[in-house]
Amino acid sequence: MHEVTTLEADLAALFERAGLVDLDPAATAADEHLRSAAYRRVVEAAARSGDRTADRALAAVLVRDPEPLTAKTAAVELVDQVAGAMPDGAAFSAWAASILPETDRLSSEKDREFLRQRVRDWTLWLATETGDVPTSDELAAVSDWMQRRLADLSDSLPVLALLAAHARTKKTRNTAVNRAKTLR
Q1: Is 99:59 a contact under the CB 8 Å cutoff?
Q2: Interhelix angle for 68-85 vs 32-49, to 10°?
Q3: How far apart are CA 62 and CA 70, in angstroms?
Q4: What number of H helices and E strands is found in the chain?
Q5: pLDDT on residue 2
Q6: Model pLDDT for residues 1-12, shown as the tens digit of each residue
Q7: CA distances in angstroms from 87 to 25, 41, 144, listed in the order given
Q8: Which residues, 6 or more positions from 153, have their beta carbon under 8 angstroms from its beta carbon?
Q9: Any idea what the Cα angle at residue 107 is, between residues 145 and 59, rounded to 5°?
Q10: CA gyration radius for the chain?
Q11: Which of 11, 60, 155, 170 could be disulfide-bonded to 102 (CB atoms 3.0-4.6 Å)?
């Protein structure tokens, strides 16, 4: 009973901070699907606010969810949403350093490493968005997901050339080659 009460209190505080008056903390605490949807809304509201001061507390609540997959998914959503609102890799890295102590409380080492990898991925993405070109070692350190994202969305010919030469998968290398052709 104590866990449910704590979860309800955590949810009530999150909902109030996000201005989500239509959500019932008791009902949400009882259903992982409702919590997952509610966490998405809370994270979106936090990302839109631009105020990063409460993100560590938010991450702490998200990773305490009793369902490990729900906790991981919510933490990834927080990282993804904030990355999309950051001006550059340095600002994102500083923000990530503040929440990683909380996300490192996820129950599974695999989930903790996934979050750390996601942070590395977004840091590289944001650096390329401000004109940096990664080294082949830096490119090798990002996930296949980020390599595909770069090949699909980057407008940097040097980044696309690097991907064409060094991406892990043939599909990503081909995508980079074809995308570069369309940008010339």
Answers
A1: yes
A2: 20
A3: 8
A4: 11, 0
A5: 45
A6: 445 569 999 999
A7: 34, 22, 23
A8: none
A9: 70
A10: 19
A11: 60
